[in-house]
Amino acid sequence: MYKVVRDFKDKDGRFYREGDVFPAPDASKQTAARLKVLSSTNNSYGKVFIKKNEAPKEK
After folding, report:
1. Alpha carbon distance 46, 24 (integer Å)
2. pLDDT in tens, 6-47
3. How far apart are CA 48 and CA 12, in angstroms?
4. Whose C-alpha in 1, 11, 50, 56 is 20 to 30 A from the C-alpha of 24?
5. Number of structural domains, the chain?
6. 56: pLDDT strictly greater than 80
7. In the 3-class helix/strand/coil scheme, how is 6-59 assigned residue by residue?
8. pLDDT at 57
9. pLDDT score, position 9
10. Per the omega criterion (within 30 degrees of 0), is the bond before 23 cis?
């Protein structure tokens, strides 16, 4: 599961806003390559759009 950190529109035309979960529950399955592009600056915008949600560590 990923969290949107910058608003964007995906290749299917779906808008994601900061704080949304990515991908949306009814969205198509995302490839590892697509997740890598959106979670790094290695894209045409040079910006990070999603970050992986980290599970809270138990004490």
Report:
1. 23
2. 999 988 899 999 999 999 989 888 999 999 999 999 999 999
3. 19
4. 56
5. 1
6. no
7. CCEECCCCCEECCCCEECCCCCCCCCHHHHHHHCCCCCCCCCCCEEECCCCCCC
8. 67
9. 95
10. yes
